[in-house]
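Database export, one record per block. Field names are fixed; values are copied verbatim from the stored entry.
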Amino acid sequence: MTWRESFAPLHERNFRFYFAARFVNTLGNAMASVALAFAVLEVTDDDPAALGFVLAAHTIPMVVLLLWGGVLADRFPRIAVLQTSNLVSAASQGAIALLVISGAAELWMLVVLSAGHGVASAAGLPAMASMMPSLVPREELQHANALMSLVRSGLVVVGPTVSALLVVGVGAGWALAVDAVAWLLSAALLGFVRVPPREPATGTPSTWTELREGWAFVRSTQWLWTVVLGFGVLNAIHAGPWFTLGPLHAKDTIGEGGWGLVLSAEAVGLLVMTVVMLRVPLQRPLLWGMLGISLLGVPIIVLGAHPTLVVLVAAAFAAGVGTEVFSMGWNLAMQENVPDEMLSRVYSYDMLGSFVAMPLGQLAVGPLALAFGTGEVLVVSGIAYVATCLLVLLSPAVRRLPRAAPEPLVAPAET
């Protein structure tokens, strides 16, 4: 596999504009993930339970409405769904930024606006996840996914650190304002993507009929529902102990700047592995993917047991490497084995199962930390993370799933 072949998707006009849209969007999100956490802690005097409320306010409507978002993305033009989602996200993030910058923010305001962002995410995520097969031929899917990961990893390397510097220098609101502008620019760039419309479906099936079709596929595909079930646990741990307790424990140990460096080290690991994935075909995508993602439990354990910056940075780097292997493996498994006409719905079931326990993790971790201590909760959570990954690998369907044979793109998706 040559470098020229690795960058072949960029020769496709639609992919180039989609690539640019995701570029600016990812930069904003990378900064916002750090800024929002410290904005809430600033408004609520370092209350970990309050941060859990704000994060759960985004997650709960997103989870509840994900299946509806999957039907929307399979029924209507996915680009239009994405643009609408981006505009609503820009409005909610912009309002949060304005409130934080002006000093008028209160907890209930952040909760309401985060919920609005969650509704937009429910509509946009299934559409975004299912776009790739309509932008490039099947034989270029790994290259295209790797290029998108390259954008995400490269920007997330600098995003958290820049965001942390802005938080310390001028306040969290300015990083959130950058995210709002990025959502707007992303929506504009998506307007240049011109994908031919799909063939209209016979009749107009009801939402419930379309949901049942998607569910039937998920239920009959063992590797799919096994991984999704496992990620129900994994994402609850990632969202609760790591992203909710993590900033608080880091603030008391390695500091805000140190936390930004840890997140950037994880992104460097993602970036390094992305470059590898541009050249090396990934066989047995879920076997290597689940082994890789298990490394994410290590920095959670280290943060709780031995929060030394150098050790944490090394552990986060390894976690980033493993996360990229799973991300690539999962996208290839879905895009190569799920029919395009129901891909958004299947992705929505995947996201629902993966995200459904996240609010529980976000809401429960504050009281648990107060009862048992943040360090203790982090250590136990990290061990549980690794154990869950190994349990998923007990399924032969997960371990043995091969790459699908390359074949031409049969019918591009919609405009």
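Remark 1: The chain has one domain: 3-191+208-400.
Remark 2: The longest helix spans residues 222-253.
End of record.
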